[in-house]
Design a protein that fits this description.
single chain; about 425 residues; mainly alpha; Amino acid/polyamine transporter I; 20 helices; globular
């Protein structure tokens, strides 16, 4: 009995030491762009949109596990692998696409912080640049371990969405039923919105971030099974909180026939139906989600930039050694603030379109994952099994079909 307890205790300790990349990356998918997408989708389709969550969670778990396994076994980030295996001619366009897609997400996150500050009647013109400036200094001056702890602190506050959902008093029985049994009609708008929900959960930047953060954390193959477990736990937890966000909106706004355009509107509109406190919790969650996204998404692009073009890029190196890495990180935040301050531009209000585009390019990411995860030279005995390949190819095929149908449907106004 003592031996069994001692063995299990050792396993728990080992698991705690590797905790970080999987859970942080998964929760970062619930950034301000994610909160906005879930809120808009829930206000439009109610309980019917919940049916997408379990398939999306499975796709997230599979793709993040492959990304984590690649990083653990090869010790390289996604950008390194693309450049080495496909050459600079492929690496450059892949990076350009990654940069522009990520910039859309960054602007959404900056807009999310801006909207959250405005919700609490705080002057975003002063506080937004101040908060993001302090975050940049913190990232540059801190080590990976300290930054990781800060991320976990931010994740802790996602509990506000649970409280907001409870205060909204949803139909929990119908909620659970809707996760497994479709309750709505399948049409072009539903397919379009479902791909947007997928695109804000399973992200291009998420692959770069989990690869590079595992590389920074220096996780070895001896700890791979624990890292896999962490990825699966992270995938489950992040979509559990997506569920809380959605039911808070469904039980208040959808129930009363109110369709919104962004998460800030959700926080305001929830108050008359679920009380002031529910709206405050929802708005507070938006602020935290935006801050997390404002750090992690530009970091993922900075990692990609360093890897694609062979520069030093690590949170454990100082500014002098990783000058281009940190400068590129700062450049994205600066551009995000400038765009978010333009009164005539509000990417936060076209969140479904932005995240549909994210979903549209996922099959390209899946192609690279498939190639790398089946490369015997790269992974050896850690290659994909048949089930993983079927799931990866099947997901790419379904997303591609859905994206084509939704795109033509929107243009033809079906």
């Amino acid at each position: 009995m003592r031996e069994a307890l001692s063995k299990n205790l050792k396993r728990i300790i080992v698991f705690l030491t590797i905790l970080g990349p999987g859970i942080i990356t998964a929760f970062a998918d619930n950034d301000a762009a994610g909160v906005a997408t879930y809120s808009v989708a829930a206000s439009k389709f109610g309980y019917a949109i919940l049916t997408t969550l379990i398939p999306i969670t499975i796709v997230l778990a599979i793709t993040q596990e492959i990304g984590a396994r690649l990083a653990v076994v090869t010790g390289k980030g996604m950008g390194d692998l693309v450049r080495e295996r496909f050459g600079i001619r492929i690496a450059i366009p892949v990076f350009v696409v990654t940069f522009f897609v990520n910039m859309i997400v960054i602007v959404q996150n900056v807009s999310g912080v801006k909207s959250a500050l405005a919700l609490f009647r705080l002057d975003y013109r002063i506080l937004l640049p101040l908060i993001l400036g302090l975050l940049f200094i913190f990232i540059v001056k801190s080590s990976y371990k300290i930054i990781e702890k800060f991320f976990f602190l931010l994740i802790f506050f996602y509990g506000s969405y649970f409280l907001s959902a409870v205060l909204a008093k949803p139909d929990w029985g119908l909620t659970i039923k809707s996760l497994f049994i479709p309750t709505g009609k399948l049409n072009i708008d539903y397919i379009f919105t479902s791909i947007a929900v997928l695109g804000t959960t399973v992200t291009l930047w998420g692959q770069f971030f989990i690869n590079s953060s595992i590389k920074d954390k220096k996780i070895t193959t001896a700890r791979l099974k624990y890292e896999r477990l962490e990825v699966y736990i992270g995938s489950f937890l992040t979509d559990l909180f997506s569920l809380f966000m959605m039911v808070a909106v469904i039980a208040t706004l959808f129930k009363n026939g109110i369709v919104i355009k962004d998460a800030a509107e959700a926080a305001l509109a929830i108050k008359p139906f679920a009380g002031e406190l529910a709206g405050i919790f929802f708005g507070y969650g938006l602020l935290i989600a935006g801050i997390l996204g404002c750090i992690i998404v530009p970091l993922s692009t900075a990692y990609a930039f360093a890897e694609f073009f062979g520069y030093e890029g690590s949170l454990d190196t100082d500014f002098k050694k990783s000058r281009l890495f940190y400068s590129f990180f700062l450049l994205q935040i600066f551009l995000g603030v400038v765009i978010a301050f333009l009164p005539q531009i509000s990417l936060f209000k076209i969140t479904l379109v932005a995240n549909f585009i994210n979903g549209l390019i996922l099959p390209v990411m899946f192609y690279f994952l498939f190639r790398f995860a089946n490369d015997e030279e790269l992974l050896g005995d850690y290659r994909n099994n048949a089930f993983q390949n079927v799931m990866l190819i099947g997901s790419a095929a379904l997303i591609s079909i859905g994206a084509i149908v939704a795109t033509f449907g929107v243009f033809l106004k079906i």
